[in-house]
Amino acid sequence: MAAHYSFVTYVAVVVEVTVNDDGEVSVPRVDVAVDCGPQVNPERIRSQIEGACIMGMSLALSSEITFKDGVTVQDNFDGYQVARMDAAPKEINVHLMPANDFSEPLGGVGEPGMPPIAPALCNAIFNATGKRIRELPIRYQLES
Known about the structure:
The protein is an alpha+beta fold. It contains two helices and six strands. The strands form two sheets. The protein has a four-stranded mixed beta sheet. The protein has a two-stranded antiparallel sheet with strand order 4-5.
């Protein structure tokens, strides 16, 4: 589990993970609880959080941004890979906390969903393997 707060929004993430003998990670399920205050369009919130989950998994598992001579090496999607369907979580459940008091501030949902994904994934890997991930991307650290 990992949690995060920003833009007047609380997010908590739990990741289910499997790691095979070759160190390959698969993520069958992710659950995300979001408390962003009053909700104008709940389906849009769910979509934003699902997208944040995919981007967070991509960053944690395989992608990285590096620099050479002060310029980013991965400057487009051909250099920074976003998880495809076969590597994405099979199930993403977004749980929205009810709030109907529109006198309270509306929270953001674009940015707050991504920060807790990698820590929750690393915690799940630790729970499954006993190995603590110290750097991202994870792909280099679980090879046998």
